[in-house]
Amino acid sequence: MKKLNSRLFVCAALALTTITTPVLASAVVEPVPVSVPGSTEPTPAEVKAAMESFRALPRKERKERLKDAKKMLKEYKADKRAGKAAETDQVLLAILAILLPPLAVYLKEGEINSKFWISLILTLLFWIPGVVYALLVVFDAV
Questions:
Q1: Is 108 buried (19+), middle (13-18) or exposed (0-12) by CB count in 10 A?
Q2: Cβ-based neighbour number of residue 69 at 10 Å
Q3: I need a surface site. Which of 12, 29, 65, 119 has the fewest CB within 10 A?
Q4: Residue 113 to residues 5, 60, 63, 90: CA-CA distances in angstroms?
């Protein structure tokens, strides 16, 4: 989810880029407020200003920016499928593997598959082997 939020932030940042044409420079009346450091989500005022500046763009440039945003989203999804984008925090998954082993396996795998069912059965029958198996799956040992 963090990656998705950061990608959305990048898309919003694309809309906030300054335009060098004098016609569009006069379209932005008020300054854009700065977000809180460390925050991944833009403030409502930033979103409103970005949308106004995006609507003020010529049609051709709007199409180009939308095309770029779609391309970035497509690349993100391809990276996620290839396993390059690690969304989840390993520490959180390790804690979940100890407390709720099947949930940790499901979050790591992203789907209900054979690893999930093995983890569920081991956890229901014998708690400790379920935890050990879930830790192995979370740390990519299995």
A1: buried
A2: 17
A3: 29
A4: 27, 45, 40, 20
Picking from 64, 82, 100, the residue at the C-terminal end of a domain is: 82
Specify the number of domains making up the chain.
2
Do 78 and 8 fall within a single domain? yes
Q: Name residue, tokens 């010529």.
A: 58
CA distances from 128 to 120, 132, 133, 139 (A): 12, 6, 9, 17
Host domain of residue 54: 2-82
Whether 108 and 93 have beta carbons less than 8 Å apart is answered as yes
The pTM of this model reads 0.42
Q: Residue written as tokens 């906030």? A: 16
